[in-house]
Amino acid sequence: MVNFIPDDPNNPRLKYAQEPRAWIFDCHLNPQIPVPSNPLHDRLLTNIEFHEALKQERFGSDSEQEIIGNTRRIYISNPNGVSILSLLRRTPASQVEGFRKLFANYLSPSPVPELSLRETDWWGPGFVIECNLPYLAISTQDRSDTRTLSKDKNLRARDDIDFLNLKSSITPRDQQQRSCVPDNAVLHVAVFSLMITGRSEQHSTTVCLDDEFFDQESRLMSEEEVESLAGREDPITLQPEFKRARSPRAYLLVALEGQLERVVDYHANAQDRLKNSIELYNTIPEERSPAMDQWIKRFPLILNKLVHFNSRLGEKVNHFLTDDVMVGSDGIPYGPLWQGLQAELGAIKSLRAIRRYCGQLRDINTGLEHLREAYEDVRRKRKNDYAAEQQTRDRTIEQVTVAAFGLAIMNLIAQVYTGKPGKDDASSWPTYIAMVVIFNAICISGILCGIETLLGKVGLDTPVPDFPDADIVHNPQDIFRVYLADTLQKLVNCDRLVAYDAIQTSNITGMGDLIIVAPRLRLKGVKPEELAKDLLQKLPRTPPFGCPLLDGIRLQVFFSPNTLSRLLLSYISDRSSSYGYDTSLGLADPTASDRKRKKVIVEFSSPNMASEFQVSHLRSTLIGTYVANIYANMGWDVVKMNYLGDWGKQIGLLAAGWQRFGSEDEFEKQPLCHLLEVNHKIQDLFRPEVEECKTAKTNKQDVTEIESRGLYAERDAFFKKMEDNEPEAIALWQRFRDATVKDYTESYAQLGVTFDEYSGESQVSAESIAEVEQALKDKGIYEEHDDSLMIDFSKHDARGLSLAVLRYRNGTTSYLLRDLAAVFDRYKKHQFDKMIYVVAMEQEMHFHRVTKTLELMGRQDLAERIQHVSFAKINGLPEELKGAKLLSDYLGGCRSMVQTSLDEEEEETFHVDKSEKSVEQLGLAGLFIQDHYHKRNTSYAVDPKKSLSLKGETGAAIQNCYARLLKKLESGPGSFDYATLDHTSLEAEDYAELLRILLQYPDAAHGSFRTLEPSFIVVYLLRIVDQLTATLDDDDEKDWSGLDTATEARYALYENARQVFENALRLLGVSPWSP
């Protein structure tokens, strides 16, 4: 903000700047009460007029309690620093938090969608509603945003998209220049930011900051337009009845409805322009040209940007409707803070419109994905054209490679007994490395040969058709896909890669296992519908496929159940616990001889010493466990780290509390409980001093004297002793830390979680702290302000990160400085390739500061290795967990809830038992599954009925199904000869569908790995449970006497289903149920 507003409030820009334009309107909720007229209200205002209007008080002249308008609305079009400064100077103390949110949202160079309503106690009870909608709009250079931040950096990002046009220089001579966007077109980031704050629904202030520099028509009408239209529209809601004041919540919905309609239009327009550009560039000749190369390079960047903005906004609006407002199928809001609108027809109408626009944003996303496919078609076509001239050289290289391979095998035989060279024997190392490389290649070839032998037994031609993108070693679905692609390529005589890409996978029951999309075969002069019909007749009905089905321009291809069982059961059995995963993803260099694995540090849980184990720590533990598990399964070397909050001024305050309230006897009995008790007492004692300091800061008074006495002084003095490594202070701190680690280690073990390191702020080395500070000084980034050392990020193109203290005035270090130094320490110790922080989304700014500071220090290499895996809050807890203070309390509460739930269940639904071990397993499964059922950035409330019932989509129900499967297998054989199984008995519909689901686990696991969303796996598990339940129900009703071979085949299927079931559960951090 420092770089956006004038340094001096009397800056002449305030008098002469005529942009932006603004509008103010005051009104009463009761339309019968007149509002005194004001010449500066309800009309177009310049900057100077806007400033004068804000200076006028909102109270009547006869009584300070008489408010002229209890509802104030402010709209600013394209606000600049002057208008922001005017708002800042007139912001009441009670509205500071709301305005802070407004400015943070609007002035961010990387704006993010926000939609929320929350209560606040910043200056007494009140509320803040925030709505921030970033979007993209096409404009031209002459209508671009001229506002800048530091170093003349644009406030809003923009991209030149003139390259989308097809220039005549690259078209046939008789073709005129064709355009899909105006000349000098740009794609602009724009923001609509709305904030409503107040003490109650009767007294509120609404402020809207809006970008509309690219629009031909402004929301704010001139006086002539008002007269011609017989009235002014409310520029925020775009509705004429603005004088009829609505409640703040209803007003937000109306404004959101109006703005979403505009955003949908802007994004749909951009989508159409991109579509036109693809069509234009698909018509040009095959010769290579600079313009075509430029288009291929830049088009996906613009497309990805539009997808990013559109999908983020759609997800945020959908989350707002489903999780906050909780709109039911009847269109009525049922959310705790929104159900009061059920009687407001206008609000209900707006909600329905918002849902409709949310659906349209999803449709745009779908259309953009189709554009991505169309772009890939064009790119691939050009790539194939350009690659034609390379084919001869490629064949030569291939022949040389084959010859080299043969020579290397001979060399391997000659060197096999030479042994590993010594460290000083440099001359022998190249030969030894070559030997290992060839040996690894032979091992991989052996795996492929094993697969080909298996395929030969099920009646498929070998060798397996070669397609570069297929991974038949780790994903059996790719085996079917390569055989279908090979058949398809031969039938239509197209490029092999085109044939492979024309085939999509499906996980929808009854809609085929593979889908052939006829248009993607790109056959000229053939209609897709006719092509699909022709393929329907020509595709062979032999293994591994059954009879295909026609679906318009698509062809649904089903796997032969007989072939599927023959291939898949052996495939899963051979891989066992590794089925679904690809450990080569964790190799630092898959082609290297040392097979060195990449290393990832996953930091999660991270509670604070002597503080409550909050629900955010609980969710971090659950998600972090999954993240560590999936990286380990994908071949990474994982270091699980618990970074305790064991350093800082809060420890100094705890020490002051220990001197007053500490008891050695109580500490010996229950160390953590007693430390919590001490901490609560000293916090209560400290609270008046904190309030005194807060009041002084609000009144802009110096707080140095307040912070130099009382508990402030005791706290800071003890922490200074810790930083100075004084033995007495360190000894007390060490006692507290040891007790904390011991207690949590025991509780984590109950949860099934272990850590490789219990690190903490205290473990940060003085050397790394000095190294960080020296680098900041050398780069000229470190600044002194009020006797503290800090970074002013606004001076380094990171205005949204504001000021950050690294060392306080008394010389102690801040959390940010210690975190930066910890990055250096960890890299020196582990040489990590990636470091993941599993921390709540509220810490997003902190991690932005960490990575930005590393970049400013010149350590881009470290900044790029850091990833913040964020998550939303757990909003509500059942009564059994509301009093939880420690992790053990949460676990005890879960056990209590499971016991209550089991007592209420009908006995016939039981496949688990009521033993103490079983109760423990069900409780933990309920905890993990309910959390992982939701996407990370979705908040939820813990509901025992949704987590612990033996019916429905719950962790307990999943474990109950697993227990049923175990009991089924108890009466079956312990091992199987897959070569002699009666595979024909598994061709029934239920068995075939279960096989299909088992086949899809690698896709589910890889999708989860790409996004780090455990919900992928939970959805997959629920599909397994549904199908297993149906299959087992049918089995239990049949008489299997005399059908020994069929029974053995069924048990083989169930055993492999159990293995996949177990793999998925363990990936999520859940131990499968066992008696």
UniProtKB/TrEMBL annotation:
Instruction: Please report the stretch or stretches of sequence annotated as the DALR anticodon binding domain.
Output: 958-1072
Enumerate the UniProt keywords alphabetically: Aminoacyl-tRNA synthetase, ATP-binding, Ligase, Nucleotide-binding, Protein biosynthesis
**What name appears for this protein in its UniProt entry?**
arginine--tRNA ligase
Q: Which PANTHER family match?
A: ARGININE--TRNA LIGASE, MITOCHONDRIAL-RELATED, ARGINYL-TRNA SYNTHETASE
The chemistry this enzyme catalyses reads: tRNA(Arg) + L-arginine + ATP = L-arginyl-tRNA(Arg) + AMP + diphosphate
Q: Which InterPro entries match?
A: Arg-tRNA-ligase (IPR001278), Arg-tRNA-synth_N_sf (IPR036695), ArgRS_core (IPR035684), DALR_anticod-bd (IPR008909), Rossmann-like_a/b/a_fold (IPR014729), tRNAsynth_Ia_anticodon-bd (IPR009080)
Tell me yes or no: is Ligase among this UniProt entry's keywords.
Answer: yes
Which Enzyme Commission number(s) are on file for it? Answer: 6.1.1.19
